[in-house]
Each structure stands twice: as C-alpha cells, then as structure tokens.
Amino acid sequence: MPAEPSGDHMADETTHEPTAEEISEQKAVRLAKRERLIASADGLGGGAYPVTVPITSTIPEVRSRFVGLGVDERSGETVSLAGRIVHLRNTGKLCFAALQSGDGSRIQAMVSLGEVGEESLAAWKELVDLGDHVAVTGEVITSRRGELSIMVTEWRMASKSINPLPNLHNELSEETRVRSRYLDLIAREQARRNVVDRAKVNASLRATFSSLGFIEVETPMLQVMHGGASARPFVTHSNAFDTELFLRIAPELYLKRAVVGGIERVYEINRNFRNEGADSTHSPEFAMLEAYQAYTDYHGIADLTQQLVQDAAFAVSGSHVVTWADGTEYDLGGQWERLSMYDSLSEAVGEQVTPETPMSRLKELADDVEIEIDHPLPGKYVEELWEHHVKSGLERPTFVMDFPLDTSPLVRQHRTIPGVVEKWDLYVRGFELATGYSELVDPVVQRDRFVEQARLAAGGDPEAMRLDEEFLRALEFGMPPTGGMGMGIDRLLMAVTGLGIRETILFPLVK
C-alpha cells in the first residue's frame, strides 16, 4: 500500500472537477511554463524534458530503508530520487510536495529557502505544478509529524505535465478509468494492483507448467483458415500474399500439430480475437491459455487445471481463499466437484433428459421457461436449458462434465455414453472459466465432423468451422491420446480478484 502523507503539505487544489474551460486555461499556463523551462535548460529547473536525471534511490527503497527513523529525526544520508507530484503546497519560505512512484509509494519533499536558496525556491513556486515529474536531492529526514521526507538541496524538472491531473480526492468515473487507464494507474491503488496481480498470475502459470515438464510455444495469430473454436472471426487481407486472412479465434489446431510432432506437453499464453459481443465477461480481444498433454484424458486435464488455478490464487493472495475487491472471500481450495450436465439438468426439470431426447421435447422445455433458442442442433438446447436451470446455483468451483456431441466437433466421443463427448466446462463465480477435453485424435472421425461443420457454414452459421485439410493431414500421421484445455487469462483474474473483465484488462477495447 502507498504511504500516505501525514498532512504536512495539505493540497491546495480545489475539490471540484475542473471544467473544460478551466482545463484549457491551465494548459495554456503550463505550456508557458514549459517554454520557460526549455529556455532555461542550462539554468533553473534544467529544462522541461531532460534525457535523464541523476537518481541514486527509488521512493520504495527509501521508505523501506528508513522505516525506523524517529519523529523529527535526521538520517545524515543524502539521496537523489524522482517521482510525480500528486500533492503540492507552496507557502512562504517552505514548500511541500508529495512525490509518487509508479507503484504508488509516496514520500514528502520539503523545499526550503535555507536549503535551496531564493532563486531556486522562486523557480519551484513559479514552474512546478501538480502532475509534474521532478527529481530531488537531499537528506532523508522525518518531519515534526513523523512523515518521512527529503529535505531538498537541489531539484530539477524530470517531465513537465501539460494536462492537469484529475482531482485525486474524488473517485474517477468508470468511463475515465477505462478510457484513460494511465490516469487510473496514477490515481488508484486497485488499478496498480491489478497490473501486478496479472503479472503474478502469468508467472505462476508458467512456473506450474515448467514444474510439470510443459513447453511454451508460439503459434500464428494471422491464419489462412480460422478454427479451434466455434466463433465468428475478424477478417483482414494480406497485400503481400493477396489473400484473405483471419485473426485467430484459438491456437488449438496448431498446438495439436505440435503434439503430433512429439511435443507431448505443450502450452501457449496468447491473444485471441472473436468478432462477437462484448459484456461483463466477454471481450473481442482476450488473453487465452491453451495446453495439451499426451497420454491423459479430460479427467487428468481437469486435475491440471485445478492446480493451475489454485497455484495462481496462492501467488496473488498467499492462500487458496481469495479476497475479492469488494471484500468478499471466495474459497478456491480443496477438491472441486465434477457434475454431469445431463444428470443435473434432468434433476432440475424433473424428467430424464438424454442425448436421445427429441428436439420437439427440448423446444417444449425451452418454451416452458420462455427461453428463445434459434439453433438447428439439439445439443444447443441442452446447453441453454442447463445454463437456465443449473448454472446460477453453482457456488463452489465446479467442473460440468459430458456435453452434447453435436456442439463439440473437436472432442472425443464419450467412451460409454452415446451422443455425449468427454468435455467439461469449469464454472467459477457463475461464469465459465475454462474448458477441457479428451481430444479427438481419429482423423477419419475428425474429417466427418469437419464436413458437418462445413455444411452448417454453408447453411449460414457464422461460427461454424471450415474443413482444415492441413490439420487433418497432420492427424493422419498419428496423434497420441491427449487431454486439452483452454482458459481465459482475463477471466482467471476475475476469479481471483472479483473484478469485471474491463478491470482485469489493462487497456480494454471501448467504443
């Protein structure tokens, strides 16, 4: 957490948000100060945008080293450091500023007539504004109120801020936080923590995979044929090849090629693009983890996924019980339940629903609860009915097992239940976090599934896959029994932090 100033330097800014006219006036004043700083680059202030400034320490380092310094005490040690001014008070012969580092740590700078001289103090008062980056040199001391401070003997501008900062006493609007994330990072501890937590999660994922012998690879983002998921792609054109290309919707078909080639434990953390709706759990561009492990099935890959999520939670929170941003505790520990989709739906509707249940009856069940489903596949009705009746009741992390065959064209048919595939979806916090399969490795059956997908595409289904001959050729060289999984990184952050997807993405796409 950032160390808050003690109040030696109460801010002199007003508490209302400036109007557009006031901002324009402030920019004009600041631009004039910029010109003065540039004109005096070799004199007071050292210019508006120097190439570098001499620093010997960072604000977090100084706060850590001098944590035991007593009230109104001098350390006898001089340091040089830099930070952004987030509070400022210029009065008389002693000026106060709160300097903030990138991680939110703050330290007080005290600029006095006795230490810097009349000319330098006057320049500080005339040229320095809230939001500026400044570099200061001076002795580390504590004030009479115990605030860790730098008694400045020399200062210079590190970067002149032309736009005034928003009022840091008021909470930024969600619109500002999303559209101007740089301001959010300056103003809000949670925004900075989100960036750090995401880095911890990615590092944890890689560490877990490394410990289990997985190899990280990179696959194409521009593809001549989209596949690996049922989704509408983004389409572009290559001038060099004079051909239509697609931003990938999934790396699956390339990662499976790697398994065919002998990379038996492989994963990728990548960017995917799906030209679909955006809401609290969906973004057109998102980070995805996919992994494949030879000689296991969807049960083994579920064990792996549980370990990945629990390790990530521990990396962020130090516990499998995570605390969300609103203070709610959520337990990601223990062994997670594995729930049959068909059995749980049957229990919810009070009658047996199976892969043999006719479409007419599925439509009646949907009409009974006023669900509008316009889809040619019976399996789509089963999934939509399950979401309506069962999903909202899942409180703990749960693997929902055994999906309809017709909605999962890349998945192996269940070894004992006709019309069902060995697939699970992992639900956490009420949303789908990950999905896992016993992979379909029979090239003949896979070709039949692709042909059926091509028929749906010809009938106008924009999410249907195309027949990928190169992928089928790779399968014909023999792919071992394999379990595979995919998990959204953005959603993993949502599960660990309790935030919405636009908070977990550093720079989300907005209109």
UniProtKB/TrEMBL annotation:
The positions annotated for binding Mg(2+) 1 are D425, E432
Entry keyword annotation includes Protein biosynthesis: yes
Which InterPro entries does this entry report, sorted A to Z?
Aa-tRNA-synt_II, aa-tRNA-synth_II, aa-tRNA-synth_II/BPL/LPL, Lys-tRNA-ligase_II, Lys-tRNA-ligase_II_N, Lys-tRNA-synth_II_C, NA-bd_OB-fold, NA-bd_OB_tRNA
Q: Give the start-end ranges of region Disordered.
A: 1-24
Q: Which EC numbers does the record give? A: 6.1.1.6
User: Required co-factor?
Assistant: Mg(2+)
| Catalytic activity of the protein | tRNA(Lys) + L-lysine + ATP = L-lysyl-tRNA(Lys) + AMP + diphosphate
Q: Where in the cell is it found?
A: Cytoplasm
Q: Which UniProt keywords apply?
A: Aminoacyl-tRNA synthetase, ATP-binding, Cytoplasm, Ligase, Magnesium, Metal-binding, Nucleotide-binding, Protein biosynthesis
Residue ranges occupied by any Aminoacyl-transfer RNA synthetases class-II family profile domain in the UniProt entry: 198-508
Please list every transmembrane segment annotated in the UniProt record, as residue ranges.
none
What top-level class of enzyme does the UniProt entry assign?
ligase
Pfam family name, one: tRNA_anti-codon
Q: Binding of Mg(2+) 2: at which residues?
A: E432
The answer to whether keyword Nucleotide-binding applies is yes
Q: How does it assemble?
A: Homodimer.
Read off the HAMAP family from this record.
Lys_tRNA_synth_class2
Recorded protein name is: Lysine--tRNA ligase
Task: List the source organism.
Answer: Agromyces flavus
Gene of this entry: lysS
